[in-house]
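Hi L.,

You mentioned the student needs an example of a multi-chain input paired with its predicted structure. This one should do, with 651 residues in total across all chains.
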Amino acid sequence: MIDLIDVEKTYNTGAGPVFALRGTNLHIDRGEFVAIMGQSGSGKSTMMNILGLLDRPSAGRYLLEGQDVSDLDPDARARIRGREFGFVFQAYNLVPRLSAIEQVEMPLVYQGAPDRHARAAKALERVGLSAAFHKRGPTQLSGGQQQRVAIARSIVVEPRVMLADEPTGALDTTTSAEVMALFRELVEEHGITVIIVTHEPEIAALCDRIVRMVDGVIVQDATSRHTAPEHRGEVSA
Amino acid sequence: MSLADSFRIAVRAILANRLRSILTTLGLVIGVTSVIVLIAVGQGAQVGVASKIRGLGTDLLFVQPGQSNDRTTGARAQAASLTKSDSDAIVAAQIPGVIGVAPQISFQSQLIAGSLNSRGPIIGTTPDYIAVRSSAVAEGDFITDADVERKALTIVLGSTLATTLFPNGDAIGQQVRLAVGGPIGFNFRVSGVMAPRGGATDQDNQAFVPVTTMQSRLPFTRNATGEISVTQISIQMAPKADQDAVKADITNLLVSRHAVATPDFTVQSQNDLLGAASEVSATLSILLGSVAGISLLVGGIGVMNIMLVSVTERTREIGIRRAVGAQSRDIVLQFVTEALTLSIGGGLLGMALGVGIALGLDGRQVAGQAMTTLIQPWSIAVAFAVAAGVGLASGSYPAFRATAIDPIVALRNE
Ligand SMILES: Nc1ncnc2c1ncn2[C@@H]1O[C@H](COP(=O)(O)OP(=O)(O)O)[C@@H](O)[C@H]1O
Ligand SMILES: [Mg+2]
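Structure written out for the whole complex:
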């Protein structure tokens, strides 16, 4: 479903080029639950951004369901993003003045989808937030609740892929476990592909497959569970 | 995204920052308000002046002294170029179309009755004045031919003047002292009180005396040759008279009487006065309109400024919206709608305020004059359209700036 072929990403900074990704090859199938690990600055976020069509590779190709999406214009990428991907960020990234239900309705607004309220309510229900939370703004929610709203916002469009960059980075252990259970449920019950970035081994251990990165290169790709679907993760040195 | 959705988002954003939204639109509110009010005042003044000119009477010609070009006498002063004998000559000439001639001499003076006094214009005239100026006496008699003949010390008071000097309403037959200056003064007997004329000028504060009385009692009203110089000759024309022909006849008559090459007087019809007045008030309207237009422009710049700040401030929000699928046009729509909502809101508020203030000012006494305002529907439409246009223009640039925001950079932006 996802194929990164010889993907490179170079940032041109004042201090010269930074090679954030160097010839990365990665294949991820539908329904996988993947953890990407690596030290800070190893290129995890860069890869997530490219996977989520938030950014474009400097070189190489990105095939989504066999279609080359490396060279699409920003609006075409926005359309695919809204439809196919759900994003969860470490910093939640909720819009300050909107209520929980409005945050979740937002992607549907841009899709022009019907039944927005009902669908958003259902998504919030699925992440364990009852109607009592619908009207609350981000400041009236705990960190864990905010992250649940963010997850509800990402699943409301029924995406094929969920991308979560350090989703538990700001959460305590209990809440982290709950969020991970939620991801597991998405994988098992809805067949959503979940890719998370984490540097916590305990969190990574809850996934089916662990991809390790060092300096913009994937150094290890291991399936940790037998429940995971077959994959053809390649290790490139 | 539908328009209803973008409007909803815009309203949310505007309400989230109420004070700033109010301050932003204030410029536009003031702009729209002032366009409507100032144009209403300008138009009201125009109509007011016009009705005042019409209120002088109907089918009138006014002859007034002008600059003298007479080289033979040279010294003839401006105000002295028209005399009572000119007026008599016009009567004697029996110009077709002329049905009444009233010379007037006016000067400011103090009138004293017992312990009360008042200051106003004193007008020396003839009995024709009543007919020519469509006036009427409420009590007693106006100046009569006999008064003019006898140079009588008879005075007729305007209605306001009468109440000021004789609060008990018993003016007729009483003595009034006309103080010319220093110890010089004359006692006049009140023979009549004028009916109120209303209007904005001090027409009701005037007093009338026989023109001949002025000549004999007040030496300064005579010119170098001993004739009574008049400040104006009002001429009543027949309703169907050829006004231009009458004007020409009078001009020719006076030019030959004065023995000058070019007229040392002016002959103006009410239409001439109306034309001049409306030219003045049109200029005034344009001036007022421009001032108001500038404040609209400044208001528009305010909206643009706030929209730019707002885009910068909401970089992260824009990043989030982009991440969840907002396309460029959605972002443009959001900010343009926000700017338009602000400016249309400001425009509507300005409209309400402008109409309210203009209505409130109508008929109000300002500096002793009744103010007339006339709301012009076109000024409302123009002010509103400009406000909305300014909103659209000033929202577009920040909106396009917003689309250039890279979602990744925006999301990293803390
Ligand atoms: N916008 C950018 N401009 C310049 N350098 C960048 C930019 N984004 C990331 N980098 C650099 O690319 C490398 C990989 O960054 P990143 O993908 O954020 O790493 P990680 O998420 O694993 O910490 C780092 O050296 C980082 O400094
Ligand atoms: Mg990172």
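You could point out the following to them. The mean pLDDT of chain B is 83. The pocket of magnesium ion (ligand 2) is lined by residues A 44-45 (CB under 6 Å).

Best wishes,
N.
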